[in-house]
């Protein structure tokens, strides 16, 4: 059986050995041809920060971007920095493609991260907080409040805060307490009024309470930070003691999870044990307020066993993730204008307003949906809910990577199982930071009679697939969905993703075989319209890139367009370099990490790299090849990273309908246009924002344009 993209090429499996020579290292390519992935990630988070600094954006959205930046950086330290340190400590080889030693790389990461965190703090103090105040939303300090406001807050503290606080003393009878990762704490120095002895205490700011406390009786919207309220009532916590000083601090721990699946008889039990261990991972970053005294800092460094390089001294407040809380305030004028997703034209009800029949629409033709511009609820969710209640549906098979236990997707699978249908849910319990939630609702599915499997040993199942088998007049028909994003109704409202619905029997057969292999033991390569990792996705893409290079040399139409979250894989990058050197225009649209350079003379002259960030998180993956004038376009779940190509089950589906191909290529043209606001990758990995035209007018916002274009679509009226 031949690879799906080879059907039109004349190349077959017999040429695998010859193809290996194509992907070997090319001595003609310069050694310094990759950007470091960790530093590129920091550059990505800087782009997020630039949105927070953009005074043209609604101010609550700017506050939200500050919170996103903070959460992103936390995860970067918990996973990437922690993993790099662990490899150094254990003596494991540290993969680096930029020629730096691991210790030098850590030092450079620390330098950049310090600069970014200081800039992040400044953005809040000097820009966003004053802009909020100008808009009537004040985050006040205790000193800003009058007597009546302080009295009201003191009552609030005594009733709602004081009962849940747990001050922990540190003395010979009380060892230094465990400091949980990402918790916000107060380090307090006190003096015993009777003995004159100085003591230390730690107080955790309760994470279950609102971070921003409304000031009672204040005119307009006025808040005070919870830690500020607590700090001004410390005397209530230490009666008879003199409070000398207090400072906020926050610790980040290694929270990456490592499971040796080959040695574990029960993946769930092993994962639960590892999650417990993760809580006690070693410290990797200590954030402190810039007014912390040396005595307190020295104590924290000693007790937490942390280095000076891992200390981040910042102007307060710490943990700006708390700004997410401000998104709950009722000021729609300070946010993006509301957007209600439309129902995809194919799924809209008919003229007599009957409920749309999803299966009938898919039978007519493939349906391509674009979230969040088009509704997840009236497409993906409706697809599964209709399957659950349809008596003709015999079986449902689905992969689940990140969702929620109360999700209508999970409920549809439960309803289907309880209705007597065969239901298979392939749950990826190793989805990072969602492991505990996934275990809970996986067990809920099992109790309802769903066949729950956990994929293949050593491979994460990251593909986004759903397959429904329906009995229609005595014959079985396959209805398939292949997506780029998770089956999660919540994130579908803020993640930009694509999904293809099809009744093509070939896709149905491909998915049937793939699901059987995922619940069995091995992934084979016999797929017609899919490219599947880990066996053949990499080779398939490399063949397509090589075909474009050959076409360019032969004078045929050639072009490559990739839209990905990250591009790191060296083989893919080198293939793009060779294609560019042969004259192939290469457009790369990347949201996050980009190890590909655009500044290598004679190599990257035909490579253009853009990044777009905004209201929605760009999450879809598109791979388009000119193919001599007969474009081939794929969508799916895979990024161009080692893990996606070698250690995950990923799937791309080829888009066949000419209208869909035209739509995706048009989407790409808009993104890469010089008239569209974006970041351009320049020399030495520097990203430069292009948001205004030469005359100072704003460039077009791609997401706004896409929203407006899709909202203009209308279902054609039925002829009478």
How does this model look, in words?
Mg(2+) binds at residues 402, 432. This is Polyphosphate kinase. Residues 710-720 have a biased composition (Basic residues). The active site is at residue 462. With 720 residues, the protein is α/β, with parallel strands linked by helices. It has 3 domains: 4-23 and 531-711, Endonuclease Chain A (Endonuclease, Chain A), CATH 3.30.870; 39-334, polyphosphate kinase like; 345-527, Endonuclease Chain A (Endonuclease, Chain A), CATH 3.30.870. The longest helix is centred in the first third of the chain and has 33 residues, at 102-134. It is globular, with a radius of gyration of 28 Å. The relative contact order is 0.10.
CATH level 1 name of the largest domain: Alpha Beta
Determine the mean pLDDT: 87
Number of helical segments with 4 or more residues: 19
Rg calculated over all Cα atoms: 28 Å
What fraction of residues sit in β-strands? 15-25%
Question: Can you tell me the residue ranges where pLDDT is under 50 for at least 5 consecutive residues?
Answer: 1-24, 259-265
* Main sheet record: 10 strands, mixed
Any chance you could write out the topology, listing elements then pairs?
Elements: H1 16-23, H2 37-52, H3 59-90, H4 102-134, E1 137-140, H5 147-161, E2 168-170, E3 184-192, E4 198-204, E5 212-214, E6 221-225, H6 226-231, H7 234-237, E7 241-253, H8 267-278, E8 283-289, H9 294-304, E9 311-314, H10 358-364, E10 367-371, H11 377-389, E11 393-400, H12 408-418, E12 422-427, H13 435-447, E13 451-453, E14 460-461, E15 464-472, E16 475-483, E17 495-502, H14 505-518, E18 530-533, H15 537-553, E19 560-564, H16 570-581, E20 586-590, E21 607-611, E22 617-618, E23 621-625, E24 632-636, H17 642-646, E25 648-655, H18 658-672, E26 678-681, E27 687-690, H19 702-711
Parallel strand pairs: 1-6, 8-9, 11-12, 12-13, 14-25, 17-22, 19-20, 20-21
Antiparallel strand pairs: 2-4, 3-4, 3-7, 5-6, 7-8, 10-17, 11-15, 15-16, 16-17, 18-25, 19-23, 21-26, 23-24, 24-25, 26-27
């Amino acid at each position: 059986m031949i690879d799906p993209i080879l059907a039109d090429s004349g190349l077959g499996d017999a040429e695998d050995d010859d193809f290996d020579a194509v992907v070997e290292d090319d001595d003609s390519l310069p050694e310094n041809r990759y950007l470091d992935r960790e530093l590129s990630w920091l550059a990505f988070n800087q782009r997020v920060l630039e949105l927070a600094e953009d005074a043209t954006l609604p101010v609550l959205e700017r506050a939200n971007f500050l919170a996103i930046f903070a959460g992103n950086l936390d995860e970067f330290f918990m996973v990437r920095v922690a993993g790099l340190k662990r490899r150094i400590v254990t003596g494991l080889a540290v993969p680096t493609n930029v020629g730096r030693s691991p210790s030098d790389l850590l030092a450079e990461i620390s330098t950049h991260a310090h600069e970014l965190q200081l800039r992040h703090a400044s953005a809040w103090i000097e820009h966003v907080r004053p802009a909020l105040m100008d808009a009537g939303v004040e985050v006040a300090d205790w000193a800003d409040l009058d007597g009546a406001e302080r009295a009201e807050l003191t009552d609030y503290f005594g009733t709602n805060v004081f009962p849940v606080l747990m001050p922990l003393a540190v003395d010979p009878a009380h060892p230094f307490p465990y400091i949980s990762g990402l918790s916000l704490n107060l380090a307090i120095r006190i003096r015993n009024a009777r003995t004159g002895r100085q003591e230390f205490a730690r107080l955790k700011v309760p994470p279950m309470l609102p971070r921003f406390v409304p000031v009672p009786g204040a005119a307009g919207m006025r808040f005070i930070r919870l830690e500020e309220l607590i700090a001004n009532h410390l005397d209530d916590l230490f009666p008879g003691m003199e409070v000398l000083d207090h400072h906020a601090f926050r610790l980040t721990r290694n929270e990456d999870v490592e499971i040796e699946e080959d040695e574990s008889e029960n993946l769930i039990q092993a994962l639960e044990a590892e999650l417990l261990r993760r809580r006690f991972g070693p410290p990797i970053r200590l954030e402190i307020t810039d007014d912390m005294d040396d005595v307190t800092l020295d104590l924290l460094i000693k007790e937490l066993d942390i280095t000076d390089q891992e200390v981040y001294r910042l102007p307060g407040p710490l943990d700006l993730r708390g700004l997410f809380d401000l998104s709950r305030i009722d000021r729609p004028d300070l946010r993006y204008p509301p957007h209600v997703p439309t129902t995809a034209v194919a799924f809209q009800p008919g003229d007599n307003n009957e409920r749309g029949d999803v299966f009938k629409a898919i039978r007519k033709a493939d349906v391509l949906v674009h979230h969040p511009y088009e509704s997840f609820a009236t497409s993906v969710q409706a697809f599964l809910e209709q399957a659950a209640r349809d008596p003709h549906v015999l079986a449902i098979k689905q992969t689940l990577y990140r969702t929620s236990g109360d999700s209508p997707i999970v409920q549809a699978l439960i309803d289907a199982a309880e209705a007597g249908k065969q239901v298979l849910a392939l749950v990826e319990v190793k989805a990072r930071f969602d492991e505990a939630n996934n275990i809970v609702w996986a067990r809920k599915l099992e109790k309802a009679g769903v066949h729950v499997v956990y994929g293949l040993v050593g491979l994460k199942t990251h593909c986004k697939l759903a397959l429904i088998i329906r009995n229609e007049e005595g014959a079985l028909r396959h209805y398939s969905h292949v997506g780029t994003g998770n089956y999660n109704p919540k994130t579908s409202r803020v993640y930009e993703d694509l999904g293809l619905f099809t009744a093509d029997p070939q896709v149905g057969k491909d998915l049937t075989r793939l699901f059987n292999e995922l619940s069995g033991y091995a992934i084979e390569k016999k797929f017609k319209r899919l490219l599947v990792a880990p066996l053949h996705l990499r080779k398939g893409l490399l063949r397509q890139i090589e075909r474009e290079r050959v076409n360019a040399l032969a004078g045929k139409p050639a072009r490559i367009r990739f839209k990905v979250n990250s591009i790191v894989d060296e083989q893919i990058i080198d293939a793009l370099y060779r294609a560019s050197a042969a004259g192939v225009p290469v457009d790369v649209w990347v949201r996050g990490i980009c190890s590909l350079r655009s500044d290598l003379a004679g190599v990257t002259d035909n490579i253009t790299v853009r990044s777009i960030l905004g209201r929605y998180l760009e999450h879809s993956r598109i791979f388009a090849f000119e193919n001599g004038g007969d474009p081939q376009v794929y969508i799916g779940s895979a990024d161009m990273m080692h893990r996606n190509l070698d250690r995950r089950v990923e799937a791309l589906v080829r888009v066949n309908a000419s209208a869909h191909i035209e739509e995706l290529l048009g989407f790409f043209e808009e993104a890469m246009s010089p008239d569209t606001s974006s970041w351009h990758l320049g020399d030495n990995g520097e990203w430069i924002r292009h948001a205004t035209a030469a005359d100072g007018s704003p460039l077009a916002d791609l997401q706004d344009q896409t929203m407006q274009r899709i909202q203009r679509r209308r279902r054609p009226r039925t002829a009478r």
